[in-house]
Amino acid sequence: MAKRASSKSKGKAKSKTPSPAAQLRSLKRRVVRGAFKLVLAVLGLLIALVLLFAVINPPTTPYMFSEGRRLGGVDQQWVALEDVAPVMARSVVAAEDANFCEHWGFDLAAIKRAIAEGSNRGASTLSQQTVKNVYLWHGRTWLRKALEAGITPLVETVWTKRRIIEVYLNVAEFDEGIFGVDAAAQHYFGVIPAKLTATQAARLAAILPSPKTRSAARPSAAVRKRSAQIRDGAATISKDGRAACFES
């Protein structure tokens, strides 16, 4: 006499494999959850790094690391802002972001002018450039610009203006393989940053838009002209108070 199938066996027999549509929905949910967790993890890491670098000097940057691998090393030594001639900080502000002390990371007036002129030259603030140099990669992509726009207000909130200038001066590229004001001052003029003159500081600031094609030690006529403008601008922002936020 044949044995009757157990109720457990019957339950198994009745279970069905999920339909392709159900499997696809399940896969989509897993992908969305995974992407959401990844975004949260990246945001958490960025916030942690912003908080960390407010007090700890960045050991390197993505661009500095890639250049180091390409060139077999780079020249960069960290120097505190108090050990840099004050005119150097004023010069980079005059050259790149004259309203640095007056904005919260974005110079809206400069952005409007750039849009009207059909160019983004001069619209990027020192805060944005610092974020790009420290946390992101070089290149004109929408993803990088979006990340830059998101991180910049956070940096402005957590860091002081003085800290932004200090980090900027220490990670900016001044020549191929030359990063930071300490390496730049010695590379071009054979002096420590504290001994930079107004003219030397202005020349270093003048080459920043294109450091691999310009020289502070052997300036072209265009660099000399730009340096003179920066030197005058540095003196002006010192007199009118626009340097107060990073010199106090």
Report on the architecture of this protein:
This protein is mainly alpha-helical and 248 residues long. It is built from 12 helices and 2 strands, in the order ααααααααββαααα. A two-stranded antiparallel sheet has the order 1-2. A hairpin with a 2-residue loop joins β1 and β2 (178-179). The longest helix has 34 residues, at 20-53. It holds the Pfam family Transgly. One of its GO terms (molecular function) is pentosyltransferase activity.
The portion of residues assigned to helices is: 55-70%
Uncertain segments? none
Radius of gyration: 26 Å
| Number of discrete helical segments | 12
Across the major sheet, the strand order is 1-2
Overall pLDDT level: 89
- How would you sum up the global shape? elongated
What is the makeup of the main sheet? 2 strands, antiparallel
Number of strands: 2
The ordered string of helix (H) and strand (E) elements is: HHHHHHHHEEHHHH
Q: Which strand-content bin applies to the residues?
A: under 5%
Terminal Cα span? 99 Å
Structural class, judged by helices and strands?
A: mainly alpha
